[in-house]
Each structure stands twice: as C-alpha cells, then as structure tokens.
Amino acid sequence: MAYSVSHNNFSTIPLFVGFLVVASSLAHVLSSPLMSDSGNRQMKDRTFKPAKDIQKLRRINAYLKKINKPAMKTIQSPDGDIIDCVLSHLQPAFDHPELRGQKPSDPPARPKRHNSTDANPENLQLWTGSGESCPKGTVPIRRTTEKDVLRASSVRRYGRTRRRHIRRDSTGSGHEHAVVFVNGDQYYGAKASLNVWAPHVTNEYEFSLSQIWIISGSFGNDLNTIEAGWQVSPELYGDIYPRFFTYWTTDAYRATGCYNLLCSGFVQTTNKIAIGAAISPISSYNGRQFDIDIMVWKDPKHGHWWLEFGSGLLVGYWPAFLFSHLRSHANMIQFGGEIVNTRSSGFHTSTQMGSGHFAEEGFGKAAYFRNLQTVDWDNNLLPLTNLHLLADHSDCYDIRQGRNNVWGNYFYYGGPGRNVRCP
C-alpha cells in the first residue's frame, strides 16, 4: 500500500528514559553462506571430524525431516527461498500433542470498528510476484535448509532466542529500542500500520526489526509475549531482505516458543502469506512509502490470539493453551523498533533502525507507525491513551509522537546507529 500524506511538524517531546518495559530478545546465532535450495542436501567441501561432525549432520537432517513437511507444490522465490505448499493438517503446529488430529479453529469475530475488505490481498511478498500461488487447503511454508541450521549455535537453538537475563531496562543487554508502550490496563489485542524498510545490518550477529509486542506476566521466568512485524536478520535467514515474522514465548525466551513456524505452536490458516518470507515492495528514502497493517487480537469465543496481515487477511492464530498469563489478557502493548548492538569493532554499531534516519526527518524519510489502537474486553478497537515513549539510546535511535485526524496516534522513530553523537 502506498501513501503520500503530508508531514506535520512536531513540537519537542520529552523521551522517557527511566525503565524499559520491554522483554524482546531475538537470536544471536552463527553465520555461514546463503542457504542451499535443498533442506537435506549433504554438505560439500567440508572436512568432518569422524564422530562430532557426522553426529551433528545426522541431527540436522533429522530436524529438517521433521520441520520440512511434504509439499503438494513447490514455488521458487526470486530471492532464493523455496516455498512449500503443505497440506494444512500437516503443518508443524499439528505436531503438538494438544493439536494432533485436530482441525484449525473457525475464524473469529473481528474487533468492532475494524475495517477489512477480505478482498484479494495485495502482492506483499516476493514469492508471489511470479503469479504462482499455493492451492486451497495448503499453507505456504518457507523451507528450512541445511545452511539455515548451520548458522545457529546448535540444532536445538535454531529458530529460538539465545537465553539471557531479562531486565526492565535494556542498557548493557546489547538490545536497543525506540518504542511506544501502554500498560496498567487489560488488553485483548493491538493494531497498527507500519512502513517497511531495508535497514543496513552491520554483521551477522545483529538484526533490526519493527514490530508489535503483546506482553503479559512479570519480567522474570514467566513472561509471555506474542510478537509480529518485519525484521532484517542475516543470521536467521542468510540475507538482508526485510521479512514478515512472528515470535512467541511463555517463559521469557528460555525454552518455549520460536520464530515463525519453526516449532509446533502457531496454526497457519491462509494459503496467501508465507511467514518468514521477504516483503515486497518496500519504502524508499524521499520516495514512495509502503506500509503493512498488522493486528493481533484475542478471539472472545475460543481465547486464541489471531494474527491479521494486510487488508483483512487472517494469517492464523496462537492457541490459548500455549500461554499462562496471555491465556487471560495482556497487561502491556508495545510498538516500535529494536536492534542488537554487539560493539564488534569496539564502538557502537552502525546497524540502522527503521529507515536509518532520525524521527525529526518525518514523512518519506523516517520510519513510522500510524493508527495505533488496542482491543478492549468487549472486542472494541480503541485509540491509545496514556502513551509512554522510550528511546533508551536517543543519540543513536530516537522517537517522536504525534496525532492527527488521518493517522490517529502515530510516531516516527529510528536512526543510523553510530554517528558523532553516538560513538
């Protein structure tokens, strides 16, 4: 979707820097060359240690056999991805003991005051550009390859976050944020439109993302989150394309949850969107802007958390039983950007957030979220109130809030990372 809304000047807005109510930690894994086009191809030109390497290869092949389901149709994406059209009841979610033998849940009632077309969606991903599509009754799944798994520190950790101490402020964690959040109430979902960029990521151990967080629980071991947005992560995908992604955890990223469909959990229902696939088109500096709509909300009838992408397209849902605190409701909603700063060269990273430009540059130059809304107990979409802003490294990445009749509550955010004020 392209928009050309005129930019409104901001007044100076103080940035909240006390504590960060954030609990997102994404994976830092090892890098290797881009993926092969076969998940089970034997590694070439590699010297094996007789026991250790062969054992690792066997573990990888066993994992690939489990995660890559038989395809009814295979589509080659221009970016090198292979998209497998998998029968809906064979997708990874139904490996879960509590889902085995079940059918996907019926579509939920959408929140009131929500406009959706349910028409044919825009071409939002590269793999659909050729006109190829997955048949009805199947779901498109990005094939996991041997090289994907080899970039991870271990087969067990692939597609999951590296365990770390979760803290209320992110200073020293390597994760830096520019976010808006609301808390202090019971929330049953959130919606926003955000424009998509391809920020520069300095090395394979870093990423840049923009997303919505649905959060419940404390910031200890019981943290529950649902996350959806776009990310550039060379370590996870082997390239620098912005990709539509999801994540969930129910124990503060320790053992449960994963990205996309890389474990049993999220149930996909659409045959039009591949989670983890590259988004296209994207925004350009001082040029056309392209944004995506994302909504996550709790089905009042069954309690599942549903995901909508684009103009009314239901992607699927996180079953209620996956969660502890989120089985009831969220106690915090957060919108914004996050990067990882490894300081690999001894100074602050040049990994960009958003467009790589500061919020003050405004429309066409800075990244934005617009029409921020939450869902209440009665399944109503409501504008946000009592917003808090936080840029925990504001000389590197900042944020500015606004409101008007067209965009409702909105904010610009992001930055270049290392600069004269951010050494």
Description of the molecule:
The protein is mainly beta and 423 residues long. The protein has one domain (66-105, 122-415). Helix content is 6%, strand content 30%. It has three helices and 19 strands. The protein has helices spanning 52-67, 146-150, 234-237, and strands at residues 2-3, 71-76, 82-87, 138-142, 175-187, 189-195, 208-216, 224-232, 243-249, 267-268, 289-298, 305-309, 313-318, 330-340, 367-375, 381-383, 388-391, 398-404, 408-414. The strands form three sheets. Strands 1, 6, 10, 11, 12, 13, 15, 16, 18 and 19 form a ten-stranded antiparallel beta sheet that branches. A six-stranded antiparallel beta sheet has the order 9-8-7-14-5-17, with no helix packed on it. The longest helix has 16 residues, at 52-67. It is globular and about 50 Å long. Residues 1-46 and 162-172 have low confidence and may be disordered.
Element-level helix/strand string? EHEEEHEEEEHEEEEEEEEEEE
Tell me the quaternary state.
single chain
Class derived from helix and strand content: mainly beta
Low-confidence parts: 1-46, 162-172
Task: Categorize the overall geometry.
Answer: globular
Mean pLDDT: 86
Q: What is the helix fraction of residues, given as a range?
A: under 10%
Rg from Cα? 20 Å
The tally of beta strands, per DSSP, is 19
